[in-house]
Amino acid sequence: MPITHLHIIEGRSAEVKQRLMETITHSICECLGTSPEQVRVLIHEVPKENWGVGGAPKEHILDR
Description:
Elements lengths: L2 E7 L4 H19 L7 E7 L5 E2 L2 E2 H6 L1
Parallel strand pairs: 1-2
Antiparallel strand pairs: 3-4
């Protein structure tokens, strides 16, 4: 049973996250030869202020 953890910055719509889950599930099934019912996808949404790039929180980088 493949389990995939995705860490993404918060703020995406439910529709976008559903499409992401479907796409990831399809790719895993194709690569591993498993059925969609066996695949687990967990999305962890991280607040922008908790996502650092180059020593600065992502929220400040997005404002530039």
